[in-house]
TrEMBL record:
Span of domain Fumarylacetoacetase-like C-terminal: 103-258
Keywords on record: Lyase
Record Pfam families: FAA_hydrolase (PF01557)
Protein name in UniProt: 2-keto-4-pentenoate hydratase
Matches recorded under PANTHER family: 2-KETO-4-PENTENOATE HYDRATASE, ACID HYDRATASE
Amino acid sequence: MTLASTIETEIVEYLYTAEKEKREVVKVTDHYPNLSFSDAYSIQQKLIERHLQDGSRCIGYKLGLTSKAKQQMMGVHEAIYGYLTDDMLSLEWEPLEYKQFIHPKAEPEIAFLIDEDLKGTNLTAEDVLRVTKYVAPAIEIIDSRYLNFKFTLTDVIADNCSSAKFLMGSKWMSPSRLDLGNLGVFMSKNGEVVQVGASAAVLGHPATSVAWAVNKLGEVNKGIKKGEIILSGAISEAISFKPGDTIHVQFSDLGSVAFSCK
Ligand code: 0L1
Ligand code: MG
């Protein structure tokens, strides 16, 4: 049974307002414990449509829960996907204002820049690499709208997978010039290394993660399009930051990306 559209609209407004007002709210499942994953994706879709009404533009997708560690923590066996909009893209040389967030965290990611439409339900990492013009070093800033960053899988899908902002570094490379499944990365806060990881943490290979998203989108007759950006999933745990902090992510072979917060 699909969710009544009045309830769906109510949840969309609830999450949309929390985000606009930078306010933590209790989880949606505290009010509606029987929501299914498909209800949650439908709420997510309507939430993005609400942002598009404000003039935002959809520019791609992001993957979440792509590491085995995070999946085990949430007791799930699958990744999740959400949308990226143009107003999420931030620039390395413009300090991020803390007041636009609730309780943000930063995580290292690899961004894929897609050069050809791709749609299907049985696609592989090779298919993704074929249509990828560049990969770039990225940082995703997640900022769950839920109290204390605590939620169920259904809640986080509905909340567009905690998406808030993302940045890309200036070194964009063809994936054919890299051992993409085997890149080392470290993340530092104010010069101190706080996370170390490897790109293989993302479902074994970041392109496998993107292929998973394309196949999942294919189930609802969607796909990725030329010009879109896909964030393939966190390579390490996310870390909190506050005004005055600088976060720097350094990849082996793929350059770096950084931001400071004011
Ligand atoms: O991008 C992410 O990995 C976030 C997925 C949702 C889980 C979280 O907010 O930690
Ligand atoms: Mg992420």
